[in-house]
Design goal:
Number of strands: 19
Strand order of the largest sheet: 2-1-7-6-4
Oligomer: single chain
Number of helices: 17
Radius of gyration: 38 Å
Length: 617
């Protein structure tokens, strides 16, 4: 066997010695590429595996930390809800009145004044009605429930509340919000889902004595939402254990993930928590998993994530096979084209290099002038097509960015601030209750205001409809702020059919009311005019408010200035200016002129465009 190997090596040596230069180059290059490929695969596999495991662990740890941060923020929100009981005047009065009568079978509403009871029930109404995760908010004395707001009924029985763990823990930790559960309370009827309980002692604001314990029950929906948002697209499983290593939450897996609630799995996790922190993994049912955990100091909870080791190894194997196949393909290509490279490739490569350098210097119209049909010719053709596509894509990006900006401005323009709608509806309700004759006109004005705002999705409307929209807005505001201002609209009749961008005048009128008229102690005046100056349509909004300084007037349209109304429609004057410039150019838009103590005048300049069928189109 050894003699045969020696003879084979001698023959190979003689062949290399007597063969031509081209064959020598092929052989040397083939051996060099093959050895490099083998060495690269070995080194890459080791390095890639180590790095992939480390990055996977770091990424999972970051997810757990991010998840823990959001969970702590959420618990702080619920703790704030529970802590409100210590600062509510009516609730403390109510608890003061009933604490000495608690042992008697007295109705909750008769334990104190009706006013204190009713106002006390409103303490937590907002949280219960506006949060889907809060199911019950209750206050307990020493032997019975004193006040409750819950989606379930309760059993009103006398018992020593110290028997409840959440009650006793809250009493043992005054000034802190205690988290217990998940659990189901035996004093609630129809409560089928497990909830987390946030309990806190209520102390008297005068002498600090014990007044009761507030209990806030929340479902696990919000916790599930937080965990899923931080644990998306993960092949592993996730659970939360409390300080006693009991299961608080586990994420339901749709792809056959592990169930932590199974007793054997939970016991293994509990044992792993007792082991050294350096332990990187855990074995479940004969399979190895990478283990990540993060302890939440505030609650004592531990977030645990397991990732199958097979996910990492499969990724490595797949990449290694790709490298091997790519290496074999490279060897084949090297052998096939090496002959042409030695004789022809230098000149075409120089031409291609010069073209790339010119393209790198921002000349995207340059093309590689190589007409050969070999690999370099095809490469040059692909390069030319790539440059053509890049040129088209750059143009497309510019166009898409402009369209995107239009859509963003349209979306911003279409917003209606809830404050304006709420205040208007509140005024209508008040008018109806007081049988005010102005309720119907205000409702009609609000309906017309919304109808014109929608405009069937069209961005352009006639000047007549725009002024009708403004008039409806002024009708609503003049009813809300009676005797606060008067207004006048002056428009040349021939301009009523002009087409303009919709909803550009109302934000200026709104600006005049909130930043001008509203600040006056006397009745204000708003003048709206529309006239033609050559081929330019001028729309002016003028008020006799306090005005602005020249610096304020000059900077009102600057990008870093915040000028939007927080109490009005929410559409700022800068948005109006940007929409006009986007559609018609930089020469059109808004212009402000103001004198302090006299008022402000803002003008809109637009091109004269006519409705179809009018004088011009």
């Amino acid at each position: 066997m050894i003699k045969r190997m020696i003879q084979l090596l001698r023959r190979l040596k003689n062949y290399i010695k007597n063969t031509g230069i081209k064959n020598k180059v092929f052989l040397y290059v083939g051996l060099l590429v093959s050895l490099s490929l083998i060495l690269s695969v070995v080194i890459f596999t080791f390095v890639f595996q180590t790095k992939l495991i480390r990055e996977n662990s770091n990424d999972m740890q970051k997810r757990l930390v991010n998840m823990g941060t959001h969970l702590v923020s959420y618990m702080d929100e619920i703790s704030a809800v529970a802590n409100e009981a210590n600062y509510d005047y009516y609730l403390l009065n109510y608890l003061e009145e009933v604490q000495n009568q608690e042992e008697n079978q007295i109705s909750l509403k008769k334990g104190g004044s009706i006013q204190n009871y009713e106002m006390s029930t409103k303490v937590f109404s907002y949280a219960l009605n506006h949060r889907t995760d809060v199911s019950s908010i209750m206050v307990f004395g020493k032997k019975r429930m004193l006040l409750y707001k819950s989606m379930y009924h309760y059993k009103n029985v006398l018992s020593d509340c110290k028997g409840y763990p959440w009650y006793q823990k809250a009493v043992d930790s005054p000034g802190e919000t205690v988290v217990t559960g998940p659990q189901q309370h035996d004093f609630l009827i129809g409560n089928t889902e497990k909830t987390l309980s946030f309990s806190r002692v209520i102390n008297s604001s005068e002498d600090g004595r014990f007044m009761g314990v507030v209990l806030v029950d929340v479902n696990l929906n919000k916790i599930d939402e937080i965990c899923r948002s931080s644990y998306t697209e993960s092949a592993g499983s996730l659970c939360i254990l409390d300080q006693n290593k009991n299961l608080v939450y586990e994420m339901e897996q749709t792809d056959g993930g592990y169930l932590f609630q199974e007793r054997e799995t939970l016991e293994r996790l509990q044992n792993s928590m007792d082991a050294s922190d350096e332990k990187p993994g855990i074995e479940l049912d004969g399979k190895n998993y990478f283990l990540n955990r993060m302890r939440m100091e505030k609650t004592g909870w531990t977030l645990i994530s397991i990732t199958p080791e097979s996910v990492i190894t499969e990724s490595i194997q797949e990449v290694v096979w790709y490298i091997i196949l790519l290496g074999l393909l490279m060897i084949l290509i090297v052998i096939l084209v090496l002959n042409s490279i030695l004789t022809k490739v230098l000149r075409p490569i120089g031409l291609l290099k010069a073209s790339m350098e010119e393209a790198e210097a921002s000349n995207l119209k340059v093309r590689a002038q190589i007409s050969s049909g070999d690999e370099l010719g095809k490469l040059a053709g692909s390069y030319n097509r790539m440059m053509e596509r890049i040129e088209r894509l750059m143009k497309q990006v510019v166009e898409e960015q402009e369209e995107k900006r239009k859509f963003e401005l349209q979306a911003l323009q279409a917003q209606i601030n809830p404050h304006f709608l709420y205040n208007t509806l509140d005024s209508i309700i008040w008018m109806v209750e007081t049988k005010d004759d102005q309720a119907v006109p205000m409702t009609e004005a609000l309906a017309k205001l919304f109808r014109i705002s929608l405009n069937k999705g069209c961005e352009f409307i006639t000047l007549e409809k725009e002024m009708e929209h403004v008039r409806n807005y002024l009708v609503i505001q003049s009813m809300r702020y009676r005797n606060k201002f008067t207004y006048d609209i002056q428009i040349e009749d021939e301009l009523l059919e002009c087409r303009i961008v919709k909803l550009i005048v109302q934000p200026l009128v709104e600006n005049s009311i909130y930043h001008g008229i509203k600040k006056k102690k006397t009745q204000g005046y708003i003048l709206i005019q529309a006239y033609r100056d050559g081929d330019v349509l001028i729309i002016a909004v003028e008020d006799d408010g306090p005005g602005m300084s020249s610096s304020q007037c000059a900077s009102i349209l600057e990008p870093d200035q915040v000028v939007e109304n927080v109490t009005g429609s929410g559409v700022g004057v800068r948005n109006v200016d940007e929409r006009i410039k986007l559609y018609f150019g930089e020469e059109f838009g808004l212009h402000f002129r103001s004198i302090q103590g006299e008022g402000t005048r803002v003008t809109i300049s637009l091109p004269v465009l006519w409705e179809k069928g009018g004088e011009h189109e």
